[in-house]
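Onboarding guide, step 5: your first structure request.
Type a short instruction followed by the sequence, for example:

Predict the 3D structure of this protein.
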Amino acid sequence: MSNKDLHFELRGEQNEIAVIRLTRGAKRNALNDGLILALRDLFEKMPIGVRAAVIDGEGEHFCAGLDLSELQDRDAGQGLHHSRMWHAALECVQYGPVPVIAALHGAVVGGGLELASACHIRVADDTTFYALPEGSRGIFVGGGGAVRIPRLIGAARMTDMMLTGRVFNAQDGERIGLAQYLVPQGTAFDKALELAARIAQNAPLTNYALTHVLPRIAEQPADQGYMTEAMMAAIAQSAPEAKERVRAFLDGRAAKVQKA
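The system replies with structure tokens like these:
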């Protein structure tokens, strides 16, 4: 990693967890093109052996959105290509090599919410707040938010956020689906790391199915979804690691599901 705005490290006994931290704390981790491209490159070149990743933000905020001080005057064609560049970069997060957990705190605003929505699991602490201020600034989301965010909370809620400037706090954000976990202040990263460690123990092919295949099944007509599911189930259960895990369960060597 050579980008000063992005810190990368490996954790775990076998370096199986990647920790990716936005380090523009003085700018509330606002995103610029260099940072977006660095994220793309990182996920395209993720070290072999990494099984899960955590994205975090330095300082008081996860990410306060697009760095408007770097917003350029573009014509329609240039704006189109710029948006598509962001799409390609965040696709590398969503459809990259490993499941990604976002550790949210403070501002998760605009492009920051677009980045968070590209992750597979979002853990928010009590300081988290969500907003899409693009509507009041005369612009529109351009980093995939118009596709990903309605899938989390519905088009009506996203419309409300953009038309009115509505801000959701941590509790309401978790209630409507912007995060799957809500934890006390200052503990989002620890919880995200705990989840990453658990996810890293899964069979890699199962994790791939959940991050790459399940979202596509959800977009398919039912009959096509059933067929895709059947093929993925057959592929997953045929893997040697899957067969060993089933044998371990049948032999009483694997833990059974317990009430939470």
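Each response can be followed by summary notes, for example: The first strand starts at residue 6 and ends at 11.
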